[in-house]
Amino acid sequence: MKYHFKTDQGIKCMTQEQADKMAGADADYHRRDLFDAIKRGDHPTWTLKVQIMPFEDAKTYHINPFDLTKVWPHGDYPLHEVGKMTLDRNPVDFHSQIEQAAFQPSNSVPGTGFSPDKMLLARVISYADAHRARLGVNYQHIPVNAPKTPVNSYSQGGRMRINHSTDPVYAPNSKGARTPTRKGTRKKRYGKLTASWFAPPTRYARAMATSTRPMNWSIR
């Protein structure tokens, strides 16, 4: 599944000359324009659309569907409208609501999973770890990051601690607190998920060849 957020405001671009001039004269132009639009009630929206590719198609499709530089042809996999995102409120405190915001792709909705795109998989692990280093292990208790339901975590010490629980900080424990569980059965799949071939450019290949074996200087 590939996600697309399509702007409902239309697309109107500056010329390169205008953009260069604006960057030097007013670097916050775009951010202030968004803030002012929300403030006056002109709420910007984006429509969420998805493309759906059956799992079996990914094995034989003419491009690697997990390559983030590739676009799935809309003729083969049309866009399906899912919903709309509306920005209708500005932050009140920049530090607590913006600087301390912690977005991470590992916060997935039940029923969705992760593709074998290596760029995505690296971020699934690294983003949450970066937040723990930047904001502390309790970053999910910060109001801007807190989910609608209570966070049940055994991480209680450290910075940003706002819970005062006396529960044990380990599992399993004698209190009978919840422990991590796995729902459903794990499906087993076999075979290659990503393309392993690599066709290097000719000049690059020659440079690499000279670094691994002596060059015949008579034919260089």
Characterize this entry briefly.
Belongs to the catalase family. By secondary structure, the protein is α+β, with helices and mostly antiparallel strands. It contains 6 helices and 3 strands.
Explained architecture:
With 220 residues, the protein is of the alpha+beta class. The chain has 2 domains: 1-90, no CATH class; 92-166, no CATH class. It is 28% helix and 9% strand. The protein has helices at residues 16-25, 29-39, 55-60, 94-99, 118-135, 202-212, and strands spanning 2-7, 45-51, 80-86. The chain has a 3-stranded antiparallel β-sheet with strand order 1-2-3, with no helix packed on it. It is extended and about 65 Å long. It starts with a strand and ends in an 8-residue tail after the last helix. The model has no long low-confidence stretch (mean pLDDT 83).
Features:
alpha+beta; 3 strands; 2 domains; 3-stranded antiparallel β-sheet; 220 residues
Describe the secondary-structure layout.
Elements: E1 2-7, H1 16-25, H2 29-39, E2 45-51, H3 55-60, E3 80-86, H4 94-99, H5 118-135, H6 202-212
GO molecular function: catalase activity; heme binding; metal ion binding
EC number: 1.11.1.6
Biased composition (Basic residues): 180-189
Tell me, briefly, the overall form.
Answer: extended
Q: How many β-strand stretches?
A: 3
Strand content: 5-15%
* Whole-number count of domains: 2
- Which consecutive residue ranges, at least 5 long each, have pLDDT under 50? none
- Biggest beta-sheet profile: 3 strands, antiparallel
The helix content is 25-40%
Terminal CA distance: 49 Å
Secondary-structure element order, as H and E?
Answer: EHHEHEHHH
Radius of gyration: 25 Å
Structural class category: alpha+beta
Enzyme class: oxidoreductase
GO cellular component, one term: cytoplasm
Protein name: catalase
Biased composition (Basic residues): 180-189
